[in-house]
What does this fold into?
Amino acid sequence: MAFHESGHAIVAESVEHADPVHKITIIPRGIAALGYTQQQPTEDRYLMTKSELLDRMAVLLGGRVAEEVIFGEISTGAQNDLQRATDMARSMVTEYGMSERLGLVTYERERRPMFLPDSLGPSKIYSEEKAAEIDEEISMVVEECHQRVRRILGEKREVLNTLAKLLLEKEVVQGDEMRALMGKSSPAPPALPAGPKADLPPQQPAA
Amino acid sequence: MAFHESGHAIVAESVEHADPVHKITIIPRGIAALGYTQQQPTEDRYLMTKSELLDRMAVLLGGRVAEEVIFGEISTGAQNDLQRATDMARSMVTEYGMSERLGLVTYERERRPMFLPDSLGPSKIYSEEKAAEIDEEISMVVEECHQRVRRILGEKREVLNTLAKLLLEKEVVQGDEMRALMGKSSPAPPALPAGPKADLPPQQPAA
Amino acid sequence: MAFHESGHAIVAESVEHADPVHKITIIPRGIAALGYTQQQPTEDRYLMTKSELLDRMAVLLGGRVAEEVIFGEISTGAQNDLQRATDMARSMVTEYGMSERLGLVTYERERRPMFLPDSLGPSKIYSEEKAAEIDEEISMVVEECHQRVRRILGEKREVLNTLAKLLLEKEVVQGDEMRALMGKSSPAPPALPAGPKADLPPQQPAA
Amino acid sequence: MAFHESGHAIVAESVEHADPVHKITIIPRGIAALGYTQQQPTEDRYLMTKSELLDRMAVLLGGRVAEEVIFGEISTGAQNDLQRATDMARSMVTEYGMSERLGLVTYERERRPMFLPDSLGPSKIYSEEKAAEIDEEISMVVEECHQRVRRILGEKREVLNTLAKLLLEKEVVQGDEMRALMGKSSPAPPALPAGPKADLPPQQPAA
Amino acid sequence: MAFHESGHAIVAESVEHADPVHKITIIPRGIAALGYTQQQPTEDRYLMTKSELLDRMAVLLGGRVAEEVIFGEISTGAQNDLQRATDMARSMVTEYGMSERLGLVTYERERRPMFLPDSLGPSKIYSEEKAAEIDEEISMVVEECHQRVRRILGEKREVLNTLAKLLLEKEVVQGDEMRALMGKSSPAPPALPAGPKADLPPQQPAA
Amino acid sequence: MAFHESGHAIVAESVEHADPVHKITIIPRGIAALGYTQQQPTEDRYLMTKSELLDRMAVLLGGRVAEEVIFGEISTGAQNDLQRATDMARSMVTEYGMSERLGLVTYERERRPMFLPDSLGPSKIYSEEKAAEIDEEISMVVEECHQRVRRILGEKREVLNTLAKLLLEKEVVQGDEMRALMGKSSPAPPALPAGPKADLPPQQPAA
It folds into this structure.
């Protein structure tokens, strides 16, 4: 678990759009205390750009890829992360018009019956052919993200080893300690983001 | 968001059949105050021609395309617009007989059980083959609209920049100010529409 | 709407098996006052022959085709007509054994659960392959009807123009006025129909 | 309707396994008074052989084919007959193992939930490929029956004309009158059937 | 029916793993009094080997094949037998891992919602391709069994004729009489079965 | 049953990641007393590695393969084992990202409606094409496991014979007796596992 958590944290510090890591811990339930705000619901109230979504997916895959890189052996622990990354990829392709191949057409419906679970038939009104195209796009988005995270953690294998060892010893590692290991300075207090997000309210860093 | 809203407004002033823009604002919930009446339900009580439907779709895509044109980066903010544009394209193809390829046959049913949500199986009674044809038509209608809006906003890139800047400064821009930027005079009070709509009640401009 | 209604009426007077037109009106709800009894439920209590069904479909498509012929622009107003024509074509193919290609086999079930809406899965017990054949037949039946109505209204373009103009002026046109425009005498009082319907009760002309 | 009923009756007298015709009538609801016991439920309490099933199907198609043979025009009146013939063909293929191509495997389930309508998904547990094979077999069985009935009524076209005329005049024709027209003697009182049915209780002729 | 029942009984005495026939009767409801225990539920409480399952299927098909062999005419009477044989073949292929082609993977789920009938969608979570493979295997298993029973009854055609005649005369034939006809001695009282079933409780012969 | 249970036990002692066998018994319900903790729910609270999952699958298939190896005859007794092994293979492929071919994308959803059984449509939102790929992967994973267990029990055929004989005689065999037969020493008390599981709580051996 130490490597798994270290993987999440290192990726979070390596991509552009993730919130800074506050604390890493392997004390049970500690996973929720990661700097990266895993509690944030997938249906964001705020706008997110395609780059931000891709960075979040990378952080989610970080835990699993750390296991691959270090042990060549993988565990069931990443199930929830993989599911959330898949859901994000699906939304990019079917709701946000972020796949060039599928275009601006949406393939999911917003309106849901209030009192009926969505497992009651996913209300699929497109053809099998389109469904297969959607599957291919989702697989491609996730696989590209997978390769990107392998590159990130492959280059930072030393840090990953050191951080995991530290975590096994101390059970809790502060974000600043970790950034020191990576040769990064601590983050400045959050500034107003630039560019397309110029008129968005700033995102709250995790507690 | 300033660019997104400016995109909607500029397209609305550039196509033939959209209502004139009354006011643009980026004050939260401001989107509903756009001249273009986004509140109008998709099931119109009045007749609409194919050209009117295509113009409405163009206004809907205007926000997303503005992001593409200016930032080369896209956000999740257009989700609802894309969904509504997709729904319009689907209705044109499956309910209004407006696709030459599919012909006058309808593929959706009007009658819906009152007390059961439509996610309970979309009551699809046509084949997979037809479903794939329908998907292709919808994709084509939306993609043609996408290209049309790219042309409109590509030609008006300067106005888009100026308008968005103005909107960031002042938060609200009146329709007349905007038309001045575009070198257009203000609209005459609504006259009785000519041609095929000759015997339709006039559409109410948004408040 | 004047052209749309005129289209329905002219086709009704041009085919063999439609009831004579009593009155045409563009006063709202006027559509129900057409000589052709649009209120008659699709599940007729009386037998209808294949020719009668095809004539009814032609009257239904008359409104939409009038728009095509006169304006080259089409509206959403024909949605309900298209849906009913599609339903008739579907019944001919799947319930009445009127398609040579599909033969005498039926593909719809009469018995429906009383308390469950038919959207709960259309109880389709045939294969995708058969569903695609059915779709093709329905499309063909509707398209042939479309072409037939285009020929009828193309030949009567003058009458269509005159009748619509008259309707815009006077809002109501009597069946006899209309038949005069078409150079037809008024219909004799309904006689017992000949041929295959010899032992059917006579159909009631609309009020 | 006179021709339709005459068609049923003539086929019933022409095949080996149908009950003798008691009376034909075109007085409304008269159809239930035909010698052929149309009231008998499809789920027979007694065994039926394949030949008996095929003869029943022929009687069902008799009405529709009479219209084809005499008028070359067909009506919606055969809908219920076609449906029942289709149901019989389906049972032969999917429940009784009477199709050589499909073999002895059954494709329908006997056990049905008591309180849920069978339209709730036909509980199909076989593949699309098998469903297409089943459709082909059913179409073939019905089409062969169609051709057989055309031959029967084609050869008896004179009787069909005479009988229908008589029926239009008198509204009721007794079975014996009809058999006289066909040059047949009246049936002997029912004897114990021979052959495979040797140990079956005799079928009750319709009242 | 005499031939049908004789077919069941002769096959039961000809295969290795069926219980000895106690009594055959054609008195109504007599079918339940056959030596072969048809009441035994398909979901056995005890283990059954593949050979035992195949022998049971053979007994089930015995009635139908007797009709084929003797009359060349088949009846609806075997419907229930065919259904049960199909169910057994399906279980062998999808639940017991007894098809080499499908392997040890199972394709049916044990856990069923308590209060919902299984017709509510068979909860099929495999692909169409796999469904087609399963159908082929089931057809093959049943067809091989069909051929096997044809061979058995073809060789014992004389006994089948004699036994059915006896049954028509006397309505009841004891198992020992029947075995005498077949040139077999009566069965010894049940001994502990040998081999793989060594530790199973002995099966109860039917009363 | 003696061979079936011996198969489970020998495989459990032959793979790396299974808990040591405590006791084997063929007294009814004895199966639950095997050292291998069959009661442990499939949704583990603890992480499991891919190797551990594969070893568990091997133990599950051990009973069935013992029948194959010794008798060349198979029984229905393995139904539950096969089902559980299939479920594990399915989870590996669709939830844990453990198939290289399918990648890190997940194809099952965690969230289930509380009050609706999962048979209500498996909420499949992927295409038929992907479903076929998933089926192939599951078949491959199970078949590889099958071959592995055949190798294990083929090499230990002597032990399997001896152990089953012992079990038939004594009805209960202790884990230590069995390990002595296999020439293995008894297991040391459980130590902290090494490697990827370093920070997991130790698994409880079955009582």
